[in-house]
Amino acid sequence: MDINVPYMPSVKNLNSILSKIQKAAVPERFTHEFLKDLGFKSSNDQAISKILKYLGFLSPSGEPQTAYKEFVDETKSKKILAERIKIAFDDLYNSNKDAHTKSGDELKGWFKTKTGKSDSVAVKMATTFKTLASFGDFSELTDTSASRRTKTLEQSATPPSISIEEKKDSAKSRRSDFGLVYRFEIHLPDTQNIETHRAIFKALKEELLS
Question: How many angstroms separate the CA atoms of 107 and 130, rounded?
Fold first, then answer.
């Protein structure tokens, strides 16, 4: 969890902004001008951009991401928001799986301890979190579904380990043109006999190339 938690100076328009986002077309970039077009011209409302980036709805430069495009589908928007909240505030949810039900004072204390910010800033963080959470639907959200995207990214970034005992057909399938990268882990016996090591590597080569 990034401890630079964004917050709204005033949350009175937060839910209205989220509702308007759902009804508007997805912009190429989420800008202050776009926010004004939605009817929110106050400087207090501009903090929504940082919050949407923190939740993973927007890229650092403001382009709508997959989560944003899913959020505008009102049939699943509340669940998507809840999912992104649990991912963005993972440390908070590790401390309490029902963190969205915590009181404002409890959240203020947690944010103050976590971020080291003043009471007034911690209050705004807690209030922003509570208001966001009130717009989400956590009723059917499990820990598994909340971490689905994170796990997918981790799996795509980490090449799988391949053991020497794999079948020949698996070895053949690796010789594809998909450009995948694999990591081989070979546990060599504790011996100083170089011929033993050579025999192992020769057998591995024959197994993979046959």
Answer: 9
